[in-house]
Amino acid sequence: MTRNCVPGLRVVLLVVSMVMLIFPSFASQPIYAPKAIKGVLDLRSAKFTDAPININGEWTFYWKLLKKTSRSDTYHEYENFPELWNTILWKGKTISSQGFATYEIKILLPKERDQLALKIPDMYSAYELYANGKLIARNGTPGPTKETTTPYWSTQVKPFLATDTLNLKLFISNFHHSKGGISKPIQIGLFNELQDNSNLGNALDFLLTGCMIMGGLYFLGLYLLGRHDKSTLYFSLFCFFYSYRIIGSGGYSLHTIFPYIGWQLAIHLEYISLFMAVAMFALYTRYLYPKDTPGKIIFCMIGVCFAFALITILSPPILFSQLMNPFLGLLTPYIFFAIYVYWVAYRNKRIGAKYALLSTIALCIIFITLILAYYDIAYPKEFLLFSGYLGFFFCQSLILSFRFAFTLKKAKEDAEVGLKVKSEFLSTMSHEIRTPLNAVIGMTHLMMKEDPRPDQQSHLDVLLFSAKNLLGIVNDILDFSTIEEGKMQFKSIPIDISDLVHKIISVHKASANELNIDLTAELHGPLPKIILGDTTRIAQIVGNLVQNAIKFTKSGWVKLKIDIVNKTEKEVTLKISVEDTGIGIPLEKQKIIFERFTQIDSSTSRVFGGTGLGLSVSKHMLALQGSELMLESEEGKGSTFYFIQTFPIPDEPAIPQPVGVDQPEEKPLQHLNVLIVEDNRMNVLVIKSFLKRWGAISDVAINGQEALEKLDATRHQIVLMDLHMPVLDGYEATKQLRERGETLPIVAVTASVAPDVKEKMFAIGISDIISKPIDPEKLLSVIIEQVKIKKTDGKYSHPSE
Fold first, then answer.
1. Is 386 part of any domain?
2. Can you give the pTM of this predicted structure?
3. Residue 746 sits in the same domain as residue 772
4. Containing domain of residue 358, as a range?
5. What b/e sequence results for 575-612 when a residue is b if at least 16 CB atoms lie within 10 Å of its CB, and e otherwise?
6. Would you call the peptide bond into 82 cis, given omega within 30 degrees of 0 as the criterion?
7. What pLDDT digit, counting tens, does each position of 440-459 carry?
8. Residue 140: left if φ>0, alpha if ψ -120 to 50, beta else—which one?
9. Distances (CA, A) of 91 to 56, 78, 99, 244, 428
């Protein structure tokens, strides 16, 4: 317990020492001058060029009197000015704070002087001031009863005309406030100096208020648009409440631009803003450093603030104005308690605690000087007070900025971890889904090559179509993930655009025929024989559009059209469009259909199926290539999806032809010895069946370690390596094979096809990649290319022969 108290005691001593050191320059004592004696103040030798002078001393005082003229025989006393009425003795008895009174003083002025003026503060709670019988200033309307008195507060600078004598008569009336009389001195000085100082004070108040309101709006925006950090919310509310304190109390700068604000409203806001500002700062402290803030103490303070604010709302000023003294008594220890909390946070190395401690010490000094001014002990210099406020809010802004930056950094790190986890999950799911799909599609291909009966052929067609449809969904999900990660890559290889269009039509012809939909292609203009582009991505985009059109067309036709927009010797711009007579898309839904996992309505996915990713993937792929997927549609009449893209035209229009495997008598891999490294028995069966059909001899290793042991470079010409296996995976097995000097081709047969995965494969020595599910033509083509098999006079031969 003692150890915990020592740092707090040190902080208190530190703050007291700083106040003692800083206070002389931060706050100025009241201006001293000759004081009035028995209602006369002699200023004939005063130099007003030095500073304004307080009109203090003994004023002639009349209790319960409001008259412009008073006879010399009217009973009066001489009372110190300024003084609150509850400290004055009239006829030997204490008078009430409720009542009315008249003050008089005669001021002797120097004969030669510049224009003089009076700076008149607010009084409790209405007054009129006459100079040589002429009314020069008033606040509200003083009267002998509550009904005839209208309270109002403002600070005024008023010039006056006088010879060598100035007779002041001041009427004060109070029936609305718990205090009566005047607590601040009236000053006399040069008009220009008093006016300039007043204008400067108002300007600083307005500037500081504007800064606080803008800061409050800024932090409120951070709360609403960010992660709803409550410390940010409560600091913004503190800024809003305290901003009114700056212009709505003290010098009452707000009343200079809004002179008709009702006193009842103004004083309610003045007190409520103080109570609520302290409550918001307490809540801000609680949520800024919750582990370092004693909850019971802070919530007790918050409860007191809310109770005082509620009393202020429900009661008249004459009652709630009595709350100020007890509240200031509670506020002083609370300020030191806040410093202690921030010291603990600083000791525990919390984010921004150093700045929180400095700003709270600055706020402590500000509050102490304001409390001293409230009790008329000392008055803060406006510019230094302004600087203190700026320092406080600057430090607090740094705290919340650091906190916001830390939150963003943490969110970024969490997002990166989440992205990594998602990538690993998708990679794993890709492998787990593609592996059985490989067996399904592979075995279907093999069965279709074995002369099935017509009924079996139709069943195999359905099976193959369904498997490829599932593969398309998996590919869409993986492609979207790749796009989100910014890893999508595009190739530039020769494409026979006419052939590609006819292949897309043939792929989707069966599904269109099942729905009695006429699927056709229209190629307009003299298209180039060969263009450069990414065959896979173009086929995927156009295929998505055709499949989508077929899905949402109940009757009629779907048409794939290619039109030439522009053509030069080096490039051609094509408009590729897919038109249908389907259900169409309402205008208000046309934007959302390009969002991921989105369809026209919830019933669409039940009726037509699909993930809603196809259009989104296509749109993003086109955007990455500088194109845009466009839509024209009318509900009930059909839709047209199209995009315009420019393709280079190669100088030598050559395109590689796929290796044909339709002739069962051909043995392109005759006598070729292949090592299959695969742990899934169905995949082994599929690959072995393909290789056997092509004349190859195959051996099997069920993991990477077994592959290291079984590989014989004198016998095996190529390795088909799975990557995800027990004991030793394909990555490490390939790495070890290359390290021991094996140079034969190693082809990865994998379901992981992300760009970063491919880069990793090639980095360890993988020769080529075959994606699962395996396309027989692709597999044969890669093996022929890697083993350098040539076809001469209709016969295949490889180097080993």
1. yes
2. 0.56
3. yes
4. 2-25+228-408
5. bbbbbbbbbbbeeebbeebbebebbbeeebeeeeebbb
6. yes
7. 777 777 777 777 877 777 67
8. left
9. 22, 11, 16, 42, 98
